[in-house]
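user: At home tonight, take the chain set out below, taking as long as you need, and be ready to discuss the fold:
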Amino acid sequence: MCIRDRLNIVTMALQYEGSPPEWDSMLSTINLVFTSIFIVEAAMKLYALRFRVYWFNNWNKFDFCVVISSLVDLIMGALGTQLLSFLRAGPQLARVLRVLRVTRLLRLVKQLKELEKIILALIYSIPPMLNALALTSLVFFIFAVLAVFLFKGVTTGVMIDEYTNFQSFGVAMITLFRCATGENWPFFMYDAQRQSDVAPLFFIAQQVICSFVMLNLFVLIVNNELSKYQDLNNPLLSMGETLDAFKRQWCQSTSENNGLRISEKCIIDFFRKLGPPLGFPKGKSQFEMAKEIQALNIVCDNGYLSFNQLLFYALKMRYGNKGDFTSKSQKAYLMMEELKSRKDITEIAKKEKEKIRDEMFLKFSKANAVNPLMTLLYVRMTFKSWLKHTKDHNEKMKLAREKGEEYISEEDPEDLDLEEEEDEDGQPSENRKRDQSFYTGRSSAEESRHNSFYSLSLIHI
């Protein structure tokens, strides 16, 4: 993969102005081959990972955007400029899409680890660089106000003209920025010196502060972040590898649950197999591991933990006890941050549970192909039939009691033999007594309970 990307970069660098048509045709064919390889790679990843898992990785998002831009470039090249004449910016758009091929260079970042570290260090240095940029803007603001106050009358000179001068604040800012780049700033100083004798002091101070001090401040910030990132004791250096190891162990330990959750009984075994830095080292006893896990105060959901919950407890066990937090304010801050993290993890687990429930419901519905409306209709029809039959049965039994007759049900003929069953002593058998007690009558409490049940059933129906 790395060789493929480098070859693609080399072929993009072979294009030059005035090249023969055969050379351009060959480069177009090579570009078509590389584009086809990128499309096949993206399609295979989408098929293997599915869209939700594929789109979770930022590098996959970048690859997908590169593939889409390459496809649009190929389609516009196949249509030609004549069919794109309805677009006023058709040729310019085609050139922009061709320029987007250069973004394939960034694919090397995820393959070259050292280059990836430098890029990450630059990303981490953005917040302090914004502070330094604000300070630089303040310095330029001060010098621009002084320049307007001191050199407002200078209108012509070797470098000063109607477009580059100090007559207004905005133009003065642009002019001083041009001086800070080192472009002919002594000539600006000579032109301003004709009106004010403090021009050399002003421009030399502006060059020292803006060109040397402030510029080196940005370099110092980037250098400081690089030194922090390359420190072996910095957890950010190995956080990516540690997280990948955690994910691999999670997949192995949760294969029975489709990678969705892990049982609380498997937590000790999980951390034992995970190993340092988030897991336990070899040789540690079962009792010591159980003691450390118990100190985390893990809260399970019906005996299971999700991925985010277990990762939170693993990071807390590894990094939560480091540092000397003696003041009450620091301890309170840590407790508040932990409560926020727990709340966020609970919300994530709740959303995942709802999503899993919906997916299982859809899967079950598709597998059984059952219409829920028809199911509800069948249930109501069955209940109404049963209720009608039971009401008829009660009415017939009530009439039989009023007449003093014995009611005989027709629903189970085998159990309704009217012949007297007697035991060895000539007394009615126990089965006969039970049948008589069931068919001939019931207590008033049972009857009232029975009628109440039927009333409630009629209300629901």
Q: What stands out?
A: The chain has a mean pLDDT of 75. Strands lie at 262-263, 304-305.
